[in-house]
Amino acid sequence: MERHIRRFLNKLSFASIAIATLILIFLFLQTPQTCIPPNSPSKPHLKFLKSSYDSTPRELVSIDKKNKRLWSSNDWKKKLSSFINFFQSIRDLGLLHNHTKFICVSAGAGPKVMALSHMGVHDVTGVELIHRLFW
Ligand SMILES: *[C@@H]1O[C@H](CO)[C@@H](O)[C@H](O)[C@H]1NC(C)=O
To answer: DSSP E strands: which ranges in the chain?
Structure first.
């Protein structure tokens, strides 16, 4: 009886392995529907770079248009206000002036750069690994 059950379980295991293998092969052969073809004309902003040196021209979008949604978010406004308060305290100490040249390395999306610019600092440059932000 016990031997009979063992055989049955072995057959069940082999059947499960076979089904799992077939499903795996099927999945390998499928292109996921979330993949977007690289040259898809309907979504040019999702065009993938062919390499890190890809220099094919891309549509130029103004920085205002590109960041409109980000800049209208509450999170951004809070960060901006926080940095303006922080830089204002530095200005109050006499360490920051409108003519101070400022470079912000690893600026991210640029809330510090925008804060300084809004405060009237003339020469602010933010540098990020991918983006370079000018104000
Ligand atoms: C700095 O610039 C801001 C905004 O343009 C201005 O309100 C402020 O008076 C300027 N400060 C000085 C010391 O010029």
So the answer is: 101-105, 123-127, 132-134
Distance, in Å, from the CA atom of 21 to the CA atom of 28, rounded to the nearest integer, reads 11
Q: Provide the token pair at 23.
A: 């499903």
Model confidence band, residue 134 (pLDDT cutoffs 50, 70, 90): low
C-beta 88 within 6 A of ligand 1: no
What's the gap in Å between 104 CA and the centre of ligand 1?
20
135 neighbors 114 (Cβ within 8 angstroms): yes
Minimum CA distance residue for ligand 1 atom 3: 120
The pLDDT tens digits for 42-100 are 655 556 666 666 666 777 888 888 888 899 999 999 999 999 999 999 999 999 999 99
pLDDT tens string 22-32: 999 998 888 77
Distance 119 CA to ligand 1 centre (A): 7
**Ligand 1: centre distance to CA 120 (Å):** 5
Cα–chain center distance at 61: 17
Whole-number CA gyration radius for the chain:
28
